[in-house]
Each structure stands twice: as structure tokens, then as C-alpha cells.
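so im writing up the methods section and need the Arginase record in one place, dumping it here so i stop losing it
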Amino acid sequence: MPRAVSLIGVPTDIGAAHRGASMGPEALRVAQLDQRLARMGLDVCDRGNLHGPFNPWQPPQDGYRHLEEVIAWNRALHDAVRAELAQERLPIVLGGDHSLAIGSISAVARHCRMHGKRLRVLWLDAHADANTSSSTPSGNVHGMPVACLCGTGPAGLVEIGGQVPAVDAAAFRQIGIRSVDEGEKRLVREAGLVIFDMRHIDEVGMRRTMEEALAGVDDNTHLHVSFDVDFLDPAIAPGVGTAVRGGPTYRESQLCMEMIADTGRLGSLDIVELNPAFDKRNQTARLAVDLVESLFGKSILIR
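--- predicted struct ---
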């Protein structure tokens, strides 16, 4: 795992249903993400915030809301993530809504192709995010990044990484899923996405789930974690715009992060959908920072 990390703020809710995710990067900074990682011995560089178009809050057109603005933000993020990877630094994307994963993961996939690495994407989320313009009930692109990365979507998004699809569906392991739109269910099955939903976690536990999700990860694997904060149960993480009851508990979430850290293969990270407008005294941001510490190897004992 790289010991040099770069924070990239992306303050936009351009793809979301609610205002507020644009404040997520600052909430994570207030929760001292940079200082906490530095105390773990990491070389931390905060690159500040990217800039992009304002959110016009317009209705969808042809099944997409704010498509041109979403494309602009994702192109900027793609270039920023590529630049950090080229310097052998681990990019941490501070979102922002989950549509940003199109730009970040497209850049990671491009880097992996250039260096002969195999990509594994751990998608920690309450939602499958595999909608298309024909299945979406809202037109919000934060419900579409998985579909776009797998090659289904508008050219301006699916082609950002220089190859279509940017990522093979087989690279994804979706964990914590408990909300899938009716039209989306068929798309998920047709794409062959591997999903460990909350029923699976309830039945076999988080340890077994993570063993299955991480099976096959080796020294040639680049592990990308796309951490949507609504992955967590809203009882412990209220600061999200699309909360869904019945998510992982605090200890289940910690175990998930600790087992990822145990692989030593973490290469890039998104932290998205943190919405301080719905939070209580920044508790969700503080919890997210606690979990990121575990993701980078903090543990109760020396292991």
C-alpha cells in the first residue's frame, strides 16, 4: 500500500437528489482526516478542491439531470486522479456525490491497463447505482455510475477513461446493498454484477462476506474502494441524502475496513455522499474518518 496519499476535494452535488453533498469535503477536513492519517505515518498532501460548474437544479432531459455539468466534473476528477497515480501517490477523493466515481474509477482503470494491474472495485453502498436513462426514476446520475463504468450510458461519461467499457463488470464487488430500483434489478442481473446484499451479510456475517469479496486479490491487484457513506446504517451515520435503514453496524463496518487493510492492496479511495445538511454535529464525518483510519491499517492490537 502506498504510504503517500493525496486528498482531492470535489465539492459538488451535481448528480444527487438533494443539496448538501458539496459540503462533504470540508466536513471531512473539519473531522481532521489529514491529521489523523498523518499521525499514522502517512505522507499526506491536501490538493485542495477541484472546480467545476454550479448545480443548475434543472429537471432531467432525455433521462439525465445536469448531464453536461456531470461530465465536466468527472473529466476534471479523471485527470486529477491520473496525475496522483502517476506520482505513485494514493488518491483519496473527497466527494461530493457518487456520480464522481465515473471519473475516479475510469482513471484508476486506465492506470491499471497501462501497468498490467488487475483491478478490483469494492463498492460499499446501500444502492446498486446501476440505473440507465430508461430505468431511472429520477434522472440523477449518482444512481448510474456502475452502469456507466460498465459501458452503458452517454458517450461523454462512458468514454472518459479512453476505453469502453472502462471496467469489466466482473471487477466489481458490491457490499451492503439494500435498495435496488425495480427496473434496475434486471440490469444488475444482466450485467452479472457480484452483489453481497444485506441479506447475505445477515446470513453469513461480515467476515465471510469480505473473504468472498476479496477472494483472488493478490500482489498484482489494485484495490479501489468506493465508499458511499450511506453504506452505513443511518442510526450511526445520519449525514447522508439517501438513507436506507438496515445497513452495517459500527463493528461490522470496522471489520470490513480492517479486512481490506489486511490485504495491503488498497490503491485508491472515494469517500462520497456525505451530506452535512442532514448530519448531527459532524458525527457522520467523524465516523467516516474513523473507518478510513481502519482502512489504512489502524487496529486495536499490533497484528
